[in-house]
Amino acid sequence: AQSVTQPDIHITVSEGASLELRCNYSYGATPYLFWYVQSPGQGLQLLLKYFSGDTLVQGIKGFEAEFKRSQSSFNLRKPSVHWSDAAEYFCVLNGGSQGNLIFGKGTKLSVKP
Amino acid sequence: KAGVTQTPRYLIKTRGQQVTLSCSPISGHRSVSWYQQTPGQGLQFLFEYFSETQRNKGNFPGRFSGRQFSNSRSEMNVSTLELGDSALYLCASSLEGQRDGELFFGEGSRLTVL
Q1: Interface contact A86, partner B, CB < 8 A
Q2: pLDDT tens-digit profile of B47-57?
Q3: Shortest CA distance to A86 belongs to which of A31, A24, A30, A21?
Q4: B48 touching A, CB under 8 A?
């Protein structure tokens, strides 16, 4: 069955430190993968997407993600975190049986000053 | 360009009542999807409408229904409310649908059922 796993429920990093959020997926074919961010009290915003081609994709706000088929992973990275990056991050797979998106449970990011 | 607008933002209902939530998509977007977000279950797909037709439906009981109008605005209705229906209901619009994954979300309607 198609699924998305985000192993880390909550991560705290210091401002200026690097960030990596983990995401693993289960899907029988080549997946379409996305990362969305939800700031407190807000809707979700697309950070980046992977359809095919280059396995390193660049997104908005300085984020990037790397698709690794051998590890069934699509980890999100940022070299230097800003306090405004504090939010919840969702890894998403386009692979639902109803043609819908499948969301991971999310990773909440806290940023220490 | 205006974003996705959801109304009302907050509402409180009691068990057994019904509720209607509204979503106005980005101008030109023909697809509207609805998701339920709860702390325990995360984001779960309710249904998707495209050009006034329900394209897909998630695994929710028949108490959850929706529709889309000719101007692409969408409503969802929940009848006979239960405590477990308390959630943030998110609407998302896109040009061609969920398959390309680029959804634009509204801020949600937070429903509390007492």
Answers
A1: no
A2: 999 999 999 89
A3: A21
A4: yes
∠ Cα B45 A74 A98 (to 5°): 25
Q: Which amino acid is residue A70, in one-letter code?
A: S
The answer to whether A36 and A101 are in contact (CB under 8 A) is: no
Interface test with chain B among A101, A103, A107, A108, by most B beta carbons within 10 Å: A101
Reduced to 3 states (helix: H, G, I; strand: E, B; else coil), residue B83 is: helix
Q: Give the tens place of pLDDT for each residue, A28-83.
A: 888 899 999 999 878 899 999 998 888 999 999 999 999 999 999 999 999 999 99
- Identity of the residue in A46, A96, A104 whose CB atom sits nearest the CB atom of B102: A46
Contact partners, residue A33, CB within 8 Å, separation at least 6: A23, A25, A49, A50, A65, A67, A74, A91, A92, A93, A94
What is the three-class DSSP state of A69?
A: helix
